[in-house]
Amino acid sequence: MTRMDLFNILSEGSLFGFLDKKHREDFVYRVLEITHAPPHSHSRVKHSLSLFLSEVQKKWKKSNRHRRRFLKANKEWLGITVHLNFETEASTSGTPTDTTSKYKRGRPRKLFSESSDRSKRRKTASLRREIPENELQFAAQMKLRAEGKVDAARVIKDITLSPQRASTFRRAYKKRDFDIPKLPTDRALALMVEAGLSKNQYNLIRAVTKEIGCDVFPSYNQIIVEKSKCHPDLIVTDTKGEVKVQDLLDHTTGRILDAQEEVLKSHNIAENLHLISKWGCDGSTGSVYKQRFANATDTDQYTFLTSLVPLRLVDESNGNIIWQNPNPSSIRYFKLYVISNLHIH
Question: What is the per-residue pLDDT for 105?
Answer without folding.
Answer: 62
